[in-house]
Fold:
Amino acid sequence: MLRLRRIAQLCWLGMIAVGLAMSDTSAADEPTVAASAYSQFGADTCLTCHADESTALLFRGTHGQRRHSAGPFGAQQLQCEACHGPGGAHARRPAAGQARPAVVSFGAASATPPETQNAMCVSCHRSTAQHEWSGSSHERAAVPCSSCHQVHASADPVLARVTQPEVCLGCHARQRHEFALPHAHPVRQGKMACTDCHGAHGTTNEWDLVRLTVNDTCVSCHAAKRGPFLWEHPPVVERCTNCHQAHGGVHPALLTQRAPFLCQQCHAQTGHPSIARGPDELAGAGPSPYLLAGSCINCHSQVHGSNHPSGEQLTR
Ligand code: HEC
Ligand code: HEC
Ligand code: HEC
Ligand code: HEC
Ligand code: HEC
Ligand code: HEC
Ligand code: HEC
Ligand code: HEC
Ligand code: HEC
Ligand code: HEC
Structure:
């Protein structure tokens, strides 16, 4: 069968085939699967039993298009079996009393191990896998490609910025909570996607961030905070998340705490040079300027750093 020409590497694990169409492996030393392992008429065989809404959607999506010559429905490709593996035995009527042999099936609840599921996708999406996916936190946690991607769909929700967060938050419950807090990055509003900050398939950076560090990620949008400043504030240089929640929180400006408590985590209030207690307070009639709304930031407004020649105290 011509369709089988592209099969170069195949290993048989019970009913499961791993890895198709590896163009740069030599065909000579590869085991092959008997053509009879595949259904006789490709998708036409499968569709005799599986012509439903789900397969109709597949043909509306990218993978169902014949114009992608390297896609499952390109000429000489394996069609349904490019993803579901050889289905010849599955497509035949099982002998009396016997179960229908399984094919590769997808999703977290599938009986097919995630590695095997992913190998089906990676057989074509090799560069995606090599350059990004391999070693990512999702790969290590054995998350199947199909937990994020839908292929029996006219459009894959994880690929559109507006619908993507819902896919991710389906597993990341703590983050769902964070983004629902009153002060959060506008992800739920569809103005930002998780992938503005995180690599979808993983990166070599901490937390799979798109940039090398937390700060590089933040200042890619908040350029005014980039520095270097004449007068730096060390915790800002170190990590924006010393003071801000990355996703969202209960305090304005996504702060981890309100001032003055925020500042007092590191700065002792006692002995503050300029805060002589005012006459009102001495008389017991008014609060220290420390405790007014905005408190420390009323005076130290340049909390991210200052370029003013006399901005050493971050007051201007
Ligand atoms: C003769 C009818 C028949 C044909 C032909 C057939 N299937 Fe199935 N298929 C079934 C039935 C019935 C099930 C339900 C599960 C079972 O009984 O094993 C099923 C289940 C499946 C499942 C698993 C669904 C799940 O939730 O686990 C997949 C995937 C699948 N078939 C794909 C295919 C593919 C690909 C082909 C073509 C190679 C094919 N089928 C051909 C009858 C058929
Ligand atoms: C590009 C890979 C790919 C191709 C090609 C493909 N499938 Fe699937 N199939 C999947 C994935 C992944 C799922 C899990 C649901 C999803 O992601 O949409 C699935 C789910 C299924 C299911 C079970 C669940 C459901 O949604 O009904 C059946 C049955 C099935 N496919 C049959 C087929 C048939 C028949 C064909 C050919 C007409 C086919 N598939 C082609 C990847 C593929
Ligand atoms: C037979 C080869 C083949 C297999 C197997 C395959 N794909 Fe694809 N895939 C393609 C081609 C070809 C395209 C479209 C052209 C391109 O992006 O280069 C594509 C496109 C995609 C896209 C982009 C879709 C879009 O609408 O832009 C995603 C996501 C994807 N595949 C995921 C998967 C997943 C997940 C699996 C396994 C369940 C899988 N693919 C299996 C060949 C394949
Ligand atoms: C954690 C969710 C997630 C998982 C798991 C995942 N993807 Fe993706 N994938 C995405 C997102 C999100 C995008 C869109 C990327 C963007 O917009 O920056 C994407 C894009 C793609 C694309 C199209 C763009 C490209 O990079 O060529 C392909 C193909 C693809 N993924 C294949 C795969 C394969 C194969 C696997 C499994 C080995 C996989 N994905 C696992 C979320 C995921
Ligand atoms: C504005 C950038 C940004 C956006 C948008 C974003 N994240 Fe994050 N995320 C981060 C940073 C930075 C961290 C590092 C941990 C920290 O400092 O809180 C992180 C950490 C994480 C972690 C690891 C948490 C831990 O403690 O191990 C998960 C999971 C996560 N993000 C998921 C998501 C999801 C899901 C979305 C979309 C709904 C998303 N993130 C959107 C910046 C972002
Ligand atoms: C099927 C469930 C599932 C889906 C869907 C999912 N994740 Fe995850 N994610 C996990 C698991 C499991 C881990 C590893 C364990 C952990 O850290 O919670 C993880 C880890 C992460 C981490 C932490 C990385 C680190 O270094 O600590 C980030 C960031 C992340 N996911 C972002 C995303 C984004 C963005 C999406 C959507 C594009 C997404 N996830 C979709 C299950 C999922
Ligand atoms: C992809 C662009 C982008 C990235 C990356 C990004 N932000 Fe944002 N940030 C925004 C947008 C958009 C808003 C909402 C602005 C608005 O509503 O006016 C925002 C809002 C904020 C606010 C609240 C502003 C206010 O006035 O309440 C803070 C604080 C903030 N971001 C800090 C961070 C930190 C810290 C990081 C790194 C973890 C980061 N941002 C990464 C785009 C980004
Ligand atoms: C030492 C604590 C601290 C650190 C570290 C810090 N910030 Fe802030 N940030 C604040 C405070 C306090 C506010 C509120 C200022 C106000 O209300 O005027 C703020 C406000 C913001 C705002 C919204 C208002 C504005 O000025 O635009 C953005 C955006 C922001 N910070 C981004 C960042 C980025 C990016 C980093 C890392 C480079 C960072 N912050 C590091 C304390 C900090
Ligand atoms: C994570 C710890 C941390 C937090 C939180 C923090 N700072 Fe700082 N701050 C420092 C360090 C470290 C220095 C440098 C001290 C030095 O050089 O002696 C500094 C320096 C300063 C200076 C300059 C004084 C000097 O001695 O150079 C001012 C003013 C200041 N911080 C105000 C604030 C304010 C206002 C806040 C709250 C919005 C705040 N800081 C939050 C750690 C922090
Ligand atoms: C009424 C205005 C005002 C308020 C409110 C204020 N500061 Fe200051 N702060 C100053 C001035 C002015 C200086 C510089 C004094 C000097 O050089 O003698 C200063 C100096 C500092 C210094 C440097 C101390 C040193 O030893 O050089 C730190 C740290 C500091 N403030 C932190 C804070 C924190 C934290 C808060 C809130 C709890 C706060 N300030 C509230 C005006 C203020």
User: Anything to note?
Assistant: The pocket of heme C (ligand 4) is lined by residues 118, 121-122, 125, 128-129, 133, 138, 143, 145, 147-149, 158-159, 164, 195, 200-201 (CB under 6 Å). The longest helix spans residues 114-122. Residues 1-30, 278-286 have pLDDT under 50 and may be disordered. The chain has three domains: 1-89+112-143, 144-205, 227-299.
